[in-house]
Give the backbone structure.
Amino acid sequence: MDKFAAFGKNVSSAWNSTVTPFAQRSIHSVKEQLGQTGDKTQLPPEYVELEKRVDALKEVHQKLLAVTNQYSKEAYDYPPNIQESFTDLGRSISDKVSLLSHASSPAEAQAAFTAPPTAKPQPKTFNHAIARAALSSSQLLQHSSPVGQSPEDPLANALEKYALAQEKVGEARLAQDQQVQSRFLAGWNTTLNTNLQFAAKARRSVEASRLTLDATKAAKRSQVQARGMNPDDETALSEEARAEIEAKEDEFVSQVEEAQSVMKNVLDTPEPLRNLADLIAAQLEYHKKSYEVLSELAPYIDQLQVDQEAEYRKSREGA
């Protein structure tokens, strides 16, 4: 610490007009950290309050984006423990069901199920994975049934319908993700990486201006002290020194006002809340579509189950 103190004293005594403003700020900042400076110019309470609010807003954006950025990754809910082949991902469920509907034999059905893939692989989402597993399971049951058996296996029928429904839900999820990316993520990333950065830059300018002001005051006090006078006696300052300090004070006040204006603009903009409303709207639309699809499917599956129960009882009674 003695070496640091000696460094501070040497700097003060060697101070002259050739020192650049950046060097002045850097040296004064070091001396502040070492406790070798006098009074530090205080920032207005309003400014300090705005800084706290801006810091909070930045943290809010970072927290939400850390989670919601998952919407930009298609496979964020794709099961990590399953393995699907290129053929599995080759065609949509609706395409496969359409091809299977025209098959008149098990061989044709197998050919339709393993038809050459389309150019674009099918999405890797949880719902699409369920759909592919359900349709594959339906075909396994169909192929295991004796040739010419009638009526159709109810579970196989139900799984095929379920597969089609899950594909629709998966497509609704992808539509939701696109909306979230364009209407929420884009907006919040702009606020974080642009608007809040403007505020941070303005705050850095304020800090630089404050350090320049305090460094200038310290230099002038050192000059007064070097003449054997009281460094705290402002009347001992020359007119030139007073003018220089006043110019730095005016610059500091200007930077503070500019930074306050920028921070208020960032805090008052309605964009973050509007973007959040868009996020909720996208989620609502997805869940609404999912509800509609499953609400349409449920009665059909329920009826299959009721019919199978009746057939089961009938067969037991006749046994």
About this structure: The CA atoms of residues 23 and 142 lie 82 Å apart. The first helix runs from residue 2 to 14.
